[in-house]
Amino acid sequence: MPTDKPTVVVVGPFSTSAAGGVVTFQRNLIEKSNLSEQWNFVRFSTARPPKESVNNNYSYGAIFNSGIRRAIKGVAITAWHIATFIAVLRRHDATVVQIQSSDFYNFWEGMIYIAQAHAVGVPAVIRFGGDFEHFYTISSPRAQKIITRLLKTPDNIVCQSEGWKSYFSTLTDADRLHVVGNAVPPPPPPPDRTVRTGPPELMFICTADAKRKGVDAILEMAPKLRGRAKMTFIATPDPIQQRVRDMGLDDLIEMHGSITPTEIVGFYRRADIFLLPSFSEGFPNAMLEAMAAALPYVGSPVGAVPEVINDGVEGLLVPAGDAEALTKATMALVDDPQRRRTMGAAAYRKVSEEYELNIMFSRFNRIWRQAIDRHTSQ
């Protein structure tokens, strides 16, 4: 449809049902922010067939997690995406490209899209998620030099936190780095948890590598909750569900597979405490969604988490992998309803005032226009 607004081609995985952070970010950017008043959005999906296993998802070998057939199909789909990308840019008269990238294969794929955009005179902005530091650290010295060189090609780079901006500034020019955290739509009034009876409910959500998300510490803690609390695991991979059964915890932990974004809101609102003791994170969207439901956060200070959660104010922060510390912090909130409600209220205020999507995503206006100016001046 013809439009007099500039066009942003958003490159990344799109899904109508997935609840992962990247898909949620893109949905919020395109469908729920007021950026659509100034920009025309075009989706370019890089989605591949879903993996049956997402354990150990942070290596080149992850492409084979679900077998050779899935890997071959994924490579073929990616090749088709790359082959058709320039035609899409031309057909929609793209003004700027916004690319979602992360680590390993996704990094190299994102750099190919940047090169293609520049080949037809379109500026490109890339946003990094995933565990980029791990990817860079385990790369060979030669690969690191190539990665560093390629990081100078985007017109702008979007980081999810000040911590990630500081890290990327050691690899590329600081003037092309910008911070845009995740964000949520204006949250509805939180549920009244003062009227609840029965044991408090703890919630854990995991749409990717369960081990990285700290599931081992949670399962070690779980038996100590019996008779004092209950737990809900959302979108947990099948191997974890089997572990729960093998450990005799299925009476304590309610298990759910993948659910829609609409359904997950109901789980946040029925919970009392949110758990995410990850070993690594970018900027967990689930953290903001939990805060928007006035849930206190119990997790580890990784990625952007300590920039959002003040220990003792909106939640409690514990070392990743420390089951004893996780148990102590969780029990402190399980046994003190007023304290967890006070923390939940503080979390709700912060997300409403600082991480509402129109407040946060307004930064993209400047980032995209600066990218256009930078590319034009070259």
Secondary-structure map:
Layout (H helix, E strand, L loop, with lengths): L6 E6 L8 H12 L7 E6 L22 H24 L4 E6 L3 H15 L4 E5 L3 H7 L2 H10 L5 E4 L2 H7 L8 E3 L21 E5 L9 H7 L8 E5 L3 H9 L6 E4 L4 H10 L2 E4 L8 H8 L4 E3 L5 H4 L6 E3 L5 H12 L2 H18 L2 H5 L1 H15 L1
Parallel strand pairs: 1-2, 1-3, 3-4, 4-5, 5-6, 7-8, 7-10, 8-9, 10-11, 11-12
Helix pairs in contact: 2-3, 7-12
Protein model, in words:
The protein is α/β, with parallel strands linked by helices and 378 residues long. The chain contains 15 helices and twelve strands. Helix 8 links the parallel strand 8 (230-234) and strand 9. It has a six-stranded parallel β-sheet, sandwiched between helices. Strands 9-8-7-10-11-12 form a six-stranded parallel β-sheet, sandwiched between helices. The mean pLDDT is 91. The longest helix has 24 residues, at 68-91. The radius of gyration is 21 Å and the shape is globular. It has helices at 21-32, 68-91, 105-119, 132-138, 141-150, 162-168, 215-221, 238-246, 261-270, 285-292, 305-308, 323-334, 337-354, 357-361, 363-377, and strands at residues 7-12, 40-45, 96-101, 124-128, 156-159, 177-179, 201-205, 230-234, 253-256, 273-276, 297-299, 315-317.
Q: What attributes does this structure have?
A:
378 residues; alpha/beta; six-stranded parallel sheet; globular
